[in-house]
C-alpha cells in the first residue's frame, strides 16, 4: 500500500513529540505537505531547517495468519523517529536506502492507523566536522548553500509479506567469459520464527538454483553462488552491446512464496591496474565527467531527467560519469546500464567529518552495495572525496605560498579522516563487494604510508598556475596524472536570469559569491571584469576561457594514454541549480561553449599537435610533434595527415602518410618551420583522413610579435 500523497506537517518540538504521535491528535490546523518531497519545496517550510513532524492517516486490512506487515520508508533525509498509532517503532538514518519496520502486531489491532514521522536534517555549516552522510547535497560550493534536502523524499509504504521477508538482496558478478558467468548472491532474511526455507533463484525466467536454508528468528544473512552458462555479456557503449539479465530470488515457506525480489544486472567483469580499467578483459581509456545531482531536490526529478543527463554525457563522447559526492536515485543507474555509460560511484562523504561518524559510515557503505551492487555500469567505489581538513576558500588560491604550504602539509600529515575513517569505509566496501576496485579517497597526493597516492585534482588555470601548465607538470610528475578526476574552470551559464546584468559592472557580487557559487577572486585572475565593456562580453569570455582550458587539458591527457594516464573526469557536467560554476551544462541543460569543446576533444579519433607558444617572434625555429589518438579497436592504416600553416602574407603545407595504432596514441609526424617575418596571427590547421574509418581536424593559433 503506497502512502504517498498529502500528509500534514508541523515544526517538531517536545510538546508535539509527546502529544501528536498518537491516533487521536487533531492535526487539521497543520500545513499540508506532499510525500515524497523535500520540505523546503513547500512554501510553509521554505526557510526551515527542521525538524518536522509528519502525520498521515490510513486504513489497511489486517494481516491474515502467516502474514506480516511492514512500514517501509524508501528514502528519508536524513534521520527520523517513527511512530505507528503512538507506538515507537524505529529511528532510521541514511538517505539513499530504504528502512523497514515490522508492525504486524500493531496492524492487527484495527483497520485505521496513524503514522507519524519526525524528520531531521541538521544543517552542515562547515567543511569540517560534518556529521550527516549527505555528501554534496548539503553545504557544497557548487550548489545553493541555503538548501536543506530534509524530508520524506521517497515513497512511504505498507508492505505485506509471508512469515519470512527478503529484506536485502545483493547480486554481484565476480567473473565472466563467453562460456560462464559466476554470480555471488547475498540475502538478508527476516524470519518470524526458527524455520527451514527454500531459496529459489531464477535467471531470465529459468530456475538455476534452489537451496534449503535453516533460519533463526530475526535477521539471517545467507550467501550462495551460482554459475550461468553461455551468458550474454554486458559491455560499455564503446565496446559492445548492453545485454541485461533479470535475477529473481523467491523465499519459499511450506510451498508458498513468502517474499521475492528481482534485480536487473549485467554479466561483466571489472579489473583495474595502475589506474587503467578493463571490462571483460578489454582495456578501456576512460573519458569522463563529474556528475552533480540532477536537481538539488532529487524528489522533484522524474526518471527521464536522470536518463537525459546520461544521454548528454553519451552525446559528448564520454565513457564514464563520476557520480560526484552523492548517491542518486535508481533511475540514473538504470539509464547507465541501458545506455552503456560507466559509473564511478562516490560514497557521500565530502570534505572532513567528525569522529563519531565512523560506525554509521561503515554501515551505510554496506547498504550502498546492497542498493547498487547489481548495476553493471558501476565500475568502482570511492569512499571519500577530498578528506583534507584544509579548505581553500573562494578568495584563496594555491598560488599563495601560505595557502599552498597549509594544503601540502595537510596532504602529508596523517589525519583521522584520511588515515582512519577512509580505511574503515574502504574495508567495508571491499568486504561487501570484492568484484570492483575501491578507492579510499579522491584528490589525495602521495603520502606516507600510501606513496602511490590516489587520483588527482589538478586545477591548473583556475586554482593554481596557468592553463598551459599541465603538460610540464605531467612531464615532471607522471604519477600525478595517472588518473585526473577533477579539473576545470567556472563560466557564466547561458540561463543567467539570477544576474541583474543592467547593473554592469556593479553587479551584486556578494550575492553571486554567497548564493550562486562565483569564485570571484579566481575569476578575476583569468577573466577580468574591467577588460569588458558589457556583461554579455564578459560572460562570453568566461565561456571561451573554460572551453579553451577543457579542450587542451583533455587533449594533453589523451596524448598520455596508458603512459601513464588511464583517463580523466573533468569538473563538471551539469548544474543542480542556478549557479556560476565549472559545469558545461547549466541547470536547464543549456550548453556552454565548453560543451562543444568537450565533444571535439573526446571524439574516438583526434589529431593533436604540440601547442604553439602564446606568442612567437620572426626567425624563431619551432618543431611541433603531431599525434593521433585512436580509441577505435582497429588501426588507421595509411592515414593521411595534412598540416596547413597560415599567416598574413603566406602559407605552407605538409603531407604525411602513416598508421595510427589501435587503442593507443601514435606520433605520426614532426613539423619543423621558421616563424615568418610577418606580424599578426599564425594559424596551424591539421586534417587527418583515414578513409571511411575516421577523420579528424584540429586548429591552433599564436601571435607573431616583432622581436
From TrEMBL:
Residues 52-140 form the Beta-mannosidase-like galactose-binding domain. Its EC number is 3.2.1.25. Keywords: Glycosidase, Hydrolase. The keyword Transport does not apply. Residues 177-268 form the Glycoside hydrolase family 2 immunoglobulin-like beta-sandwich domain. InterPro entries: Beta-gal/glucu_dom_sf, Beta-mannosidase-like_N2, Beta-mannosidase_GH2, Galactose-bd-like_sf, GH, Ig-like_fold, Ig-like_GH2. Transmembrane segments: none annotated. GO terms for biological process: carbohydrate metabolic process; glycoprotein catabolic process. SUPFAM superfamilies: (Trans)glycosidases, beta-Galactosidase/glucuronidase domain, Galactose-binding domain-like. One of its GO terms (molecular function) is beta-mannosidase activity. It catalyses: Hydrolysis of terminal, non-reducing beta-D-mannose residues in beta-D-mannosides. PANTHER family: BETA-MANNOSIDASE. This is beta-mannosidase.
